[in-house]
């Protein structure tokens, strides 16, 4: 038996090779900080999610189906090809020299030097639940063209396209040699199924851009229900500022982004807030998505923060059931690291955080990442590793990032 810690999925994740009877299937077991099973993900693309109430009783067991033939072991299998102005195109699996190292690789090709042609390869149908958040990824490489991943959501008729989400990331230019993952870049999306959605498909696209004989290569497409070890959506900022929205900016010209050159790295994606030019006293607030809250329950919240010529702050806010009435807003203790955030090294950040009890009538809570401008020129605030979850009985210490994600 092999065991590994999977920072991408959980505090503790076991990858178990199957028995001889099911030699082509691996299962990954994910547990929360209390040791409860929260998910089983299978290499066949399906799995099961487990949910619990505040008392620890299992309340929901939800099987899900991921992408069939996700390892391309059956060739194209359920994957269907569609094209636009791409005569002579080829779509296949395992072009010699472009697969191996345990990876089957789907590839698309357009002959000649087209300026405006597409080859789309879509997965089979996977059922989804509106409002549930899905984690989608694929490894991609490109030669003289552009490789994209698109997450598509359809109505129950399987004909009405409700929405399309372009996956974040850029395919590895000139990559895919020998199928080694080091020769690919991972594309990803962290996305909620929209209202009315019944199915999703992954679209692996080759888009020509004037290059001669363009290729796109894809391997390891994956779809899973996001089972967080905490309740902050997109806590790693892996998918940009998805799940976070600008709520207030009375400061002048602003910018929000992730991974400003020089201010991220060492395994940390870093969100930044910025105000251009000279400033006066003002606020720039970026709020997380809504998280549930129970009146009288205690919640912890924390974030690693740094600041340049302004003040980086963390607040927790409680809302009524209408999601608009703010019942309470609390600034959490701590001081951000002045001049910090260099290279994303966590040693260049300070932790802001604390514990707050939800007031009467509370139904939701949000984190608020704030840049308070105080007159400095071009102020910045940097944030990474946000955490919020219901505190356990008698808890006095903030939960550490490593205890949730292993790194």
UniProtKB/TrEMBL annotation:
Entry protein name: YD repeat-containing protein
Residues annotated as signal peptide: 1-23
InterPro entries attached to this UniProt entry: RHS_repeat, YD
One Pfam family linked to the record: RHS_repeat
Keywords: Signal
